[in-house]
Each structure stands twice: as structure tokens, then as C-alpha cells.
Amino acid sequence: QVQLVESGGGLVQPGGSLRLSCAASTNILSFNPMGWYRQAPGKQRELVASITRFGNRNYADAVKGRFTISRDVTKNTVSLQMNSLKPEDTAVYYCKAVRAGDYWGQGTQVTVSS
Q1: What mean pLDDT is reported for the chain?
Q2: Which residues contact 54 (CB under 8 A, 6 or more apart)?
Q3: Residue 61 pLDDT > 90, yes or no?
Q4: Mean pLDDT across 53-68
């Protein structure tokens, strides 16, 4: 059974940074792709960033230039470095992995507020 565990959320001031991590219970290269989604109150869940098995990255327009997705295959983790955070980045962030179906983590809250 695949498990995804997110960590790294919290409260940060506008302009600040956070790093989210998603630890998978199995080889992350078996997924294609893995990614981060977010859901703000009253809004639909949306893609933030993804990375394919081959290392190709994709970002939502709203986060391009501020967020970076990366992975460590030795630790089976996918991370999201978030810089220049804005109040509109406030949401629950979820890790997702695709392999003959979708697997989701439990989510981690990110709040950007002064």
C-alpha cells in the first residue's frame, strides 16, 4: 500500500519561504508523475507543480519563478521550495502520486499572513 506523508507546512509572513516535503513509502520513480496540489477554502483543488519520472517539471502560472519542485530518489521524497510567498498561496497542500491510480497524502496547511 502506497503512503505519502507531507511535512513542512506552517505560518509564514508575506515574502517568506517554506519548504514542503512528501515522503513516499516506495520508490518514487515508480510514479509518473508526482506533484503538489493545493486547495484554498471554497476553491477547487489545483495543480501547483509536478515532476515526471524523467525529471520534467511543470508549474502553475501563479507560482512560476517562486516555487521549485525537486526530488531525492535516495530518500524517496519530493519537495516543494516556496519563496516569495503571498497571502493567496494560503491553502492546504497535498502531495499526489500517479501509478495505475492516484495516491494522495493527508495534506499540510500553509498560511501566509502578517
Answers
A1: 97
A2: none
A3: yes
A4: 98
Say yes or no to pLDDT of 1 above 90. no
* pLDDT for 27: 95
103: nearest Cα among 53, 49, 32: 32
Within 8 A by CB and 6+ apart from 93, the residues are 6, 9, 20, 36, 37, 38, 48, 80, 107, 108, 109, 110
Distance, in Å, from the CA atom of 1 to the CA atom of 12, rounded to the nearest integer, reads: 34
Q: Retrieve residue 53's grid coordinates.
A: 519520472
Pair 89, 82: CB distance under 8 Å: yes
- φ/ψ of 40, rounded to 5, equals -90, 160
Alpha-carbon distances, residue 18 vs 1, 5, 47 (angstroms): 29, 17, 18
pLDDT digits (tens, 9 = 90+) for 20-42: 999 999 999 999 999 999 999 99
**How many residues are present in the chain?**
114
